[in-house]
Design goal:
Number of helices: 4
Oligomer: single chain
Distance between the termini: 45 Å
Structural class: mainly alpha
Order of helices and strands: HHHH
Radius of gyration: 22 Å
Number of strands: 0
């Protein structure tokens, strides 16, 4: 197996981890914005998330191409250490572990942000109900739309 290609793949995984760290920062920023009731900041964070989503798709496509070039298409992160060239096994193990840790931190921050959004949505709905604010029923033939970006 081409060690230079393997190291290129590991570099790609490190860049993916760095992107996850940036996305984690956005999730934390979003959680703070939700806590402050700053809808403009929440919206800005969601726009940043969309950009990161596109970047992550690009990473995934490049990852698949590199795996195919190395003849191990479809290999999972957990399988990489066993598939790695002998001289790159330790580096592969460390890279995979680092990426898994970064992903777990991101996932945790993402869950906190989602829970904060859900809690605030429930609080808003309760306030509206307490105030007697209700959606007017749609007129016959009227199309109603909702914004589900949150």
């Amino acid at each position: 197996m081409d060690i230079a290609l393997w190291r290129e793949y590991l570099g790609q995984m490190d860049r993916l981890g760095e992107t996850l760290e940036q996305l984690t920062a956005v999730e934390r920023e979003k959680t703070a914005a939700v806590g402050q009731g700053d809808l403009a900041a929440v919206d800005a964070c969601m726009k940043k998330e969309q950009v990161f989503s596109l970047n992550l798709r690009g990473f995934d496509q490049k990852r698949e191409k590199l795996l195919a070039k190395m003849g191990i298409a479809g290999a999972t992160l957990r399988q990489l250490e066993d598939l790695a060239p002998e001289e790159a096994r330790l580096e592969t193990r460390e890279t995979a572990q680092r990426l898994r840790q970064r992903y777990e931190v991101f996932r945790s921050a993402s869950e906190v942000a989602m829970n904060a959004l859900e809690c605030n949505l429930h609080a808003i709905e309760k306030m509206q109900k307490d105030r007697g604010v209700q959606d007017a029923p749609a007129a016959p033939g009227e199309v109603r739309q909702a914004d589900f970006r949150a």
